[in-house]
Amino acid sequence: MIAIIDYEVGNLGSVEKALHFIGCDAEVSSDRDFILSADAVVLPGVGAFADAMENLKRHDMINVIHTVIERGKPFLGICLGMQLLFEYSEEGGENVQGLNILKGAIRQLPRNMDLKVPHMGWNLLKTKGNPALFSNLSKAPYVYFVHSYYLDTPDKDIVIGDSSYGITFSVAVQKENVFATQFHPEKSGEVGLEILRNFVRIAKLDKQVLA
Hints:
alpha/beta
């Protein structure tokens, strides 16, 4: 079973549907005991960073997330869920504290690039190394983005994927049992479904997954 953390943000249902589509047992929940007992946990989300952190606090999810990760369970952050894993975000003109699980800051995409912000649509994912999350993919697949902020991390060892939109920035990371993507696997067609299958295989739930 995969638990999808419910903290009153958008896009949770899309991730749940995608996991169901590949044959995986998944459920959106804010129940502490259910999340802690799950085989793997997903933190998706779209919305404002500060509001999301307040929602996590209100639902008592911050300690739950830290406990899940400390126990070594496979954990996947998606879009806002990836950004929340880092130290802070500049969104709103202030440095809003994040979960501080990974090192780095979330910064606004430059507004002087003659490009539309938010960055919305398909873009090239340049993978690094041979991460298990990107097994069975080409080295440069296209994935779907919706974001106005990007990750700036000093810890380049955790970066498993980059993309470019006026500037080059990190869009996928892995550290031990923690995986995260700025793009939306659940909206990235067959490439995204394969990424979700890979996460399920990492969680050793692959007997649930359809070919």
